[in-house]
């Protein structure tokens, strides 16, 4: 939703940058359409199951590599055994554009070498949330690119030591980009709240929140 007062680009922590409304509405709709396609198969959208038997409240589908708590594989052995959809070139290009928006493309920018190979697509509806965690199943320190579409949420961005304070709560709305790399790459983060019904009509999503994170797994 485009507010009366544009929200500024914000460096939330060193290496962690929030760029509001980075995705134009047309690209939001393209991403929503692509996610709908991926959600149909070859591996369907499902609630990930934790090793202890707990079930995550988000529903997830992966592209490039399948993530199951807490590892990546080419096949979705915890769902239907199918090989996940190929990671498309256009999505890697979108990831590089996102890094330029967050960090610029000057000397030392990681954009030159950034080659994301996996996307985790999370769909939040009802009371879905995500607890504080680190993204550490990758064998790469490359930045994580996060794209949000649909309902606004509270994104809690913490420190690299533990799940608690200090953290900052940032509202991620439809079209927002958040990148975390460098000293923030292994910061704890989570989604304590989604505000139902806050999505505008522009993305073509009737309800809920969609989040895509692009990652370099560092796996061959
Ligand atoms: C994640 O940490 O994998 C998802 C974050 C989000 O939904 O914004
Ligand atoms: Mn995460």
Low-confidence stretches: none
Main β-sheet, spatial strand arrangement: 1-2-11-8-13-6-3
- Work out the number of β strands: 13
User: In CATH's first tier, which class applies?
Assistant: Mainly Beta
Shape: globular
CATH superfamily: Alpha-ketoglutarate-dependent dioxygenase AlkB-like
Q: Give the averaged pLDDT, no decimals.
A: 96
Structural class, from secondary structure content?
alpha+beta
Order of helices and strands: EEHEEEHEEEEEEEE
Number of helices: 2
Approximate helicity band: 10-25%
- Unique ligands: succinic acid, manganese (II) ion
Care to describe what's here?
With 220 residues, this protein is of the alpha+beta class. It has a single domain, classed as Alpha-ketoglutarate-dependent dioxygenase AlkB-like (Jelly Rolls). Helices cover 14% and strands 29% of the residues. It contains two helices and 13 strands. The chain has a seven-stranded antiparallel sheet, with helices on one face. A four-stranded antiparallel sheet has the order 7-12-9-10, with no helix packed on it. Strands 4-5 form a two-stranded antiparallel ribbon. The model has no long low-confidence stretch (mean pLDDT 96). Succinic acid (SIN) binds next to β6, β8, β12 and β13.
